[in-house]
Amino acid sequence: MHDTAIPSFTGAARPYPGGDPYADYRGAPLPFTHLPDLADRRLGASVLAASDEFFADREHLLDPAAPRFDPELFGHKGKVMDGWETRRRRGTHAAPHPADDEHDWALVRLGVPGTVRGIVVDTAHFRGNHPQSVSVEATCLPGTPGPADLLADGVPWTVLVPRTPVGGHAANGFAVEGSSRVTHLRLRQYPDGGIARLRVHGEPLPDPGWLALLGTFDLAALEHGGQVEDASDRFYSSPLNTIRPGRPHGMHDAWETRRRRDRGHDWVRYRLCAHAALRAVEIDTGCLKGNAAGWAALSVLDTTTGADPADPAAGWREILPRTPLQPDAVHRFPLPGVPQGTHVRLEIHPDGGIARLRVHGSLTETGARDLKARGC
Prior knowledge:
Layout: E1 46-50, E2 74-75, E3 78-79, E4 84-85, E5 104-122, E6 133-139, H1 147-150, E7 158-165, E8 171-175, E9 181-190, E10 194-195, E11 197-204, H2 208-214, E12 217-218, E13 227-231, E14 255-256, E15 266-284, E16 295-301, E17 317-324, E18 330-334, E19 340-349, E20 353-354, E21 356-363, H3 365-373
Antiparallel strand pairs: 1-5, 2-3, 4-10, 5-8, 5-9, 5-11, 6-7, 6-9, 12-21, 13-15, 14-20, 15-18, 15-19, 15-21, 16-17, 16-19
Region (Disordered): 1-20
Pfam families: Allantoicase
Protein name: Probable allantoicase
């Protein structure tokens, strides 16, 4: 997966031919989409401002659902599109075409700050009204700056995606190398047009000062910098769901594996936000009734010793023995001895689903120092 080449799409797509609107959609597997979307609206991301949103609202850019298309839906401004769409740019009366550097822009606050590894500018259903090219810049600012703060002189913007041609009705993917911590993005489209979705895949890096003030918090939470490193099975849904904010909204908002027909079991390996002391764990099977996991166990590993988390024999220590679970319920377990580590591995027996995992604890001095070193 990580060796997948990133395709390049340019030019308009064919006019909508009828039937399945995704039948001629241009896309391919991308090597970074296993990482969380830092611009997911469910994490608190927002489009703070845009130069123009005449035809379609800027907030559609961060909708976690796939873009929808209704060929018969029109409004008083024209075709209703599920994306961000600006009006057509015009030049002066003597030069009806816009200048080469004219463009529209949108300012995006990430839901979780982090290092960006890949960006998808999705022009689904924008077939002949997509931008000719796009670029993406990033900055890292403390607090909660508004549009005026971001547009002020002196704000340091770094180019993540240089101006690049894109295609209509396509998933335009861009790998990003060497990103430092990012809190906000500026998306530019030249000269105008429509973009359905913006996905910003990367590794979360929270504010270490805020976590220090919290003291005890969920060390595995995506919003606090936790990550899913690997899992035995992703057949029905992603294990990333288990570290999303809040209770599950339905069975789809969980991790569910296929039915095992052998004598094995399923598992997920998590990297905690940093080296930490673990105090308690919650295992939530909310909305999973006939397909919840039957039992669960939890182990911890400290990679500051040089251990490899991908090695099952690397020194993993069981901190919660195999314990029966109830369907559609929150299970809470204290962890005796306050174990320390950087990774946890959740095992479910034999298969099924887990909605959320919460690992409550606090950073050690080593963890706090490491997290601070990775900041802006």
